[in-house]
Amino acid sequence: MKNDKRKEYLDWDEAFMLMSDLIAKRSKDPSTQVGACIVNEQNIIVGLGYNGFPRGCHDDKLPWCREGETLETKYAYVVHAEANAIMNANGSVKNCRLYVNLFPCNECAKAIIQGGIKEVIYTSDKYADMDIFKAARKMFEVSGVKLRQYLPKHQIKLSKRKDN
Questions:
Q1: What is the largest CA-CA distance in the chain?
Q2: Which residues carry out catalysis?
Q3: Does pTM surpass 0.85?
Q4: Which segments of the chain have a pLDDT < 50?
């Protein structure tokens, strides 16, 4: 029997990070689109989330601005991808892994730790020098949550399917 299985398939990290990138495309935020994918120990997706306003808050009635008085910016209203994924989870997130395309802030770190997520895999850490991200890293360290920066093995684009 000849074994001709495909050689260039996605590994789990690639698949779940692509899921994070894909769900991020649901975000209506004009400047930052973040997606999160929570996976259990059997590599089953238990939660997905992206950054956006809470359910029932119409996105035409709240601001998407980054600058101005607090109530005139998105920051007072947006639910981050990680928090959305935890709230959207189908059951417990204890001992799960969280894939996210932007390193979590301190508020999301609290929810991640409280939920019992054991590992955070992220792509970008562009805000590492900001205090809220330093606080997140410190909380992850003292609580034993493993951190790992994902480095893509392949250049995979989310585009139209090409049939053979």
A1: 69
A2: 82
A3: yes
A4: 161, 163-164
